[in-house]
């Protein structure tokens, strides 16, 4: 009787060790599935925002300029059209909130272009919990609609 | 002469030490102090919808009074009250605090308890544009008065069912005010 239980205990221990060693490779995969917790406020300004010069242009879907924010990389893309044609500028951006609510916030946004230029602008952002982000207003007086 | 007078005064002042006490105890008997730990589940009405959560507390039962430290968690099914997920896709609430509860009435196996707890709560939200990352948004002091009925089922194992009202008191946050019920099984 005693040796029977002893064998079972040894077998269980060996299986446990095998499982432990084989799961070491899987541990990174498991850790990757777990969510991360960040004590910083969320970066609400993410996604694509467009500016329409008129209501007719808006009805046709013909935007004048496009701002695309990638909150994970902290980069932006600004596409606009002028007399020379369509131009695209890229760079990084930083946000400093003055007031923050989950569906509206304002503060300062700093654009750092690839050519080294920096541009500061105050912003106001508004969203709805049901329909998501709605618009972003910048210093240039334009209201960029979420696209 | 003065010295003799002082000695006599000191000797006479020691007499009460040898006085005979009556049969009643001078000090009250020591209260019963036991370690207590409980596990419970709860649901709270937030944004007009129920949540699911639970908690664990650990403390002391001093006669009819229970003082405990606790950890609490709630999962909010509809972040900010919305199920579209277009802005936030997940919301969780964590709490760490102190609980104070008193047994105010007992009749047979049933007892009634009144309690109040205070805690630090944290609201974590996950943006739809940044999945996999919870950001800390609102946090502050929560106050929660509660009332419960306990039933001593077998031995000292007591099942408890109660209701509470929670409110963030500093800073004020209306969205986390709500009524809830809890059940303590262990």
Number of domains of chain A: 2
| CATH architecture label of chain B | Beta Barrel
Radius of gyration of chain B equals: 26 Å
Number of strands of chain A: 9
How many β-strand runs of chain B? 9
- Uncertain regions of chain B: pLDDT < 50 for 5+ in a row? none
Sum up the overall morphology of chain B in one term: elongated
Q: What's the story with the biggest beta sheet of chain B?
A: 8 strands, antiparallel, barrel
Structural class of chain A: alpha+beta
Sequence of secondary-structure elements of chain B = HEEEEEEEEE
In short:
With 147 residues, chain A is α+β, with helices and mostly antiparallel strands. Chain A has helices at 2-33, 55-60; strands at residues 36-38, 47-51, 65-70, 75-82, 85-100, 104-113, 118-128, 132-137, 143-146. Chain A has two domains: 1-37; 47-146.
Describe the protein.
The complex is a heterodimer of chains A (147) and B (186). Chain A is of the alpha+beta class and 147 residues long. Chain A has two domains: 1-37; 47-146. Chain A is built from two helices and nine strands, in the order αββαβββββββ. Chain A has an eight-stranded antiparallel β-barrel with strand order 2-3-4-5-6-7-8-9. The mean pLDDT of chain A is 86. Chain B has one helix and nine strands, in the order H-E-E-E-E-E-E-E-E-E. In chain B, 6% of the residues lie in helices and 65% in strands. Chain B has an eight-stranded antiparallel beta barrel. With 186 residues, chain B is mainly beta. The mean pLDDT of chain B is 92. In chain B, strand 3 (52-62) and strand 4 (65-76) form a beta hairpin. Classes of the chains: A alpha+beta (147), B mainly beta (186). The A-B interface holds A 35-44, 46-47, 71-72, 100, 102-103, 127-133 and B 79-82, 84, 86-88, 90, 124-130, 132-137. Strand 1 of chain A pairs parallel with strand 7 of chain B.
């Amino acid at each position: 009787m005693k040796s029977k239980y002893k064998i079972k205990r040894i077998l269980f221990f060996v299986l446990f060790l095998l499982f432990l060693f084989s799961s070491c490779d899987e541990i990174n995969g498991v850790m990757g599935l777990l969510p991360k917790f960040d004590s910083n406020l969320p970066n609400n300004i993410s996604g694509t925002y467009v500016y329409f010069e008129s209501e007719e242009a808006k009805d046709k879907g013909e935007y004048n300029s496009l701002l695309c924010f990638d909150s994970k990389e902290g980069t932006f893309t600004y596409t606009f059209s002028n007399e020379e044609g369509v131009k695209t500028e890229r760079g990084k951006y930083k946000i400093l909130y003055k007031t923050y609510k989950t569906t509206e916030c304002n503060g300062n946004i700093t654009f750092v272009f690839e050519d080294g230029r920096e541009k500061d602008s105050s912003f106001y952002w508004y969203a709805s919990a049901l329909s998501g982000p709605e618009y972003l207003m910048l210093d240039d007086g334009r209201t960029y609609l979420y696209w | 002469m003065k010295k003799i007078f002082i000695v006599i005064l000191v000797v006479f002042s020691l007499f009460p030490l040898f006085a005979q006490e009556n049969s009643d105890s001078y000090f009250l008997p020591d209260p019963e102090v036991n370690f207590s730990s409980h596990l419970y589940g709860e649901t709270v009405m937030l944004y007009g919808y129920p949540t699911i959560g639970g908690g664990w507390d650990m403390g002391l039962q001093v006669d009819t009074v229970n003082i405990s430290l606790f950890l609490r968690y709630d999962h909010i099914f509809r972040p900010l009250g919305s199920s579209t997920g277009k802005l936030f896709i997940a919301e969780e609430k964590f709490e760490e605090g102190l609980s104070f509860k008193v047994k105010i009435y007992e009749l047979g196996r049933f007892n009634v308890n009144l309690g109040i707890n205070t805690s630090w709560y944290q609201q974590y939200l996950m943006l739809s544009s940044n999945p996999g990352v919870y950001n800390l948004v609102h946090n502050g002091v929560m106050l929660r008065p509660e009332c419960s009925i306990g039933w001593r089922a077998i031995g000292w194992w007591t099942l408890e069912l109660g209701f509470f009202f929670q409110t963030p008191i500093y800073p004020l946050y209306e969205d986390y005010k709500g009524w809830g019920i809890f059940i303590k099984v262990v």
